[in-house]
Amino acid sequence: MTKHDNKYLLLFTFCLFLFWGATVLPVSGAVDYLGQMGVLRPNETVDAPNFTLSDLEGRKRSLHEFQGKFVMLNFWATW
Description:
- The protein has helices at 3-24, 28-36, and strands spanning 52-54, 60-62.
- It has 79 residues and is mainly alpha-helical.
- The longest helix is centred in the N-terminal third of the chain and has 22 residues, at 3-24.
């Protein structure tokens, strides 16, 4: 094997261990840690109120249009 091949083998092995660690190792520690910080899953669900905002093209879009889909709202300011 050449030095070039060794680099690719090392990179492949590293990626393989990362993938293994992400899929095999338990995540219960992370859940426990979130509980210690006070981040808890709600016991009951509450429907979001419907509201309307303008999109980037200026069209009015309501939250109801995205029912059943994941919606992330990003409100920010430059102050």
